[in-house]
Structures are given as C-alpha cells and as structure tokens.
Specification:
The protein has about 100 residues and is of the alpha+beta class. It has one domain: 2-Layer Sandwich (Ribosomal Protein L30, Chain: A). It is about 50% helix and about 20% strand. The chain has a three-stranded antiparallel beta sheet. The chain is elongated, with a radius of gyration of 19 Å.
C-alpha cells in the first residue's frame, strides 16, 4: 500500500442511537414530587422542572430529555425506583428516537 492510499482511508464513527425519556401524567402523584424527581434524577433546574411538570399535567406526557440509550435506561430505572419507593404510580419511559 502506498503512503497516498493510507492517507485516503477514513474511519467512520457511528453515533449512538438517541432515546427520549418521557414522563406520563397520572391523577395521583403530587406535582411537588414530580418536580423533585426531575431535579434529582434528571438534573433539571427548578424552573425547567416546573415547566415540564405543568406540560405533563396539561398534555398528558412530556419529554424530559434526550440521551444515549444507556443513560436513558439508567435514568428511567432511577426514576421508577424512586416512584416505587415513595408509593407513587408515576410512569417514566424511555423511547428510541425515530
């Protein structure tokens, strides 16, 4: 192989599939708990957590964030464990993007 041929080869890096994490509304989980969950697990500032919580309440669901699969699944598991430990039926689900 010539030096010229070596310089023409490229390495392609495949970007990981991105996933959204969505929170689903229910009629039982207090809004204060949802805000705390968004701040603690998803590192949302209080004002953004309040906006997301209101959107969930009004629209029935809202995307919390977009993450690589492993992070989306990990955050979802942490959120669901917190919900279960505190007796709230709130659902947080990861979804593969498009």
């Amino acid at each position: 192989m010539t030096a010229h041929a070596q310089s023409e080869s490229t390495t392609s890096v495949k970007m990981p599939n991105l996933w959204t994490v969505r929170i689903l509304n229910d009629d039982f989980t207090p809004m204060d708990f949802v805000i705390d969950l968004l701040r603690e697990v998803f590192n949302k500032p209080e004002d953004e957590a309040m906006v997301i919580t209101q959107a969930v309440h009004e629209a029935g669901s809202s995307i919390i964030g977009v993450y690589p699969r492993d992070i989306a699944v990990s955050k979802t598991q942490r959120a669901m464990t917190k919900c279960e430990n505190e007796g709230h039926p709130l659902q947080v689900v990861p979804e593969v993007m498009g």
